[in-house]
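Practice problem: predict the structure.
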Amino acid sequence: MEQGKNIIKKLKSLKIKEFLQKFSNLESIKNLSNLEQRIASSLILIPIILYAIFLSKSLFLFLILSITILASFEWINLTKSDPKNKNKWLIIGFFYLSIPFFSILELRFIDRNIILWLFFVVWSTDIFAYFIGKNIGGPKLIPSISPNKTWSGLIGGMLSAGIIGALSTLMFEGGVLFFTLSSILLAIIAQAGDFFESKIKRIFNVKDSGHIIPGHGGILDRIDGLMFAAPAILIIYILFQNNF
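Answer:
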């Protein structure tokens, strides 16, 4: 109970009005805290993504192609410090990028609601894992790869994903149990994607894959969970089409 009060106090301390005043001046965005930058980025990106999902296939295709190109440049830049294994990293990068983006495009043309489910599961997992892990803390998951990620954060992310899964039954034919369990599984897979990218960054001793998105780092930093979750959802769809 006390922990819940502390979280509410911290949310109030964000001073939303002050934040919006800061954000209204684009020149001052660099002075925002990391959390404020994350919120600002999300306020811009999420409406665009939702518009593309529901109202414009051409915009969605353009966004995916643009993100693919930017992510490819980030991967090449990230791995360039190991020229002896250049071909190995290029092959890994090809499959790491092509399979998820193909999966996302395929899912968008199958059923846009599946893409919505995918994004909300991954987003909710990231958000709740971040806030719960930061406020509750506790034992670390794999500190040698990602020292800030905790078991409490993972459990929080799984619970939030489960809720999204239960709500998603309003869009699909499947039952609550199927989508709740599938969403929890996807939360774990998304976190595995996060750990994979963190491992790559540790290999090359960098903090972020890039700096294109304020508060999030690079494109790869923002979509690391999607990279594993998107192919997983495509497999789930292929195996259990009757639930969709």
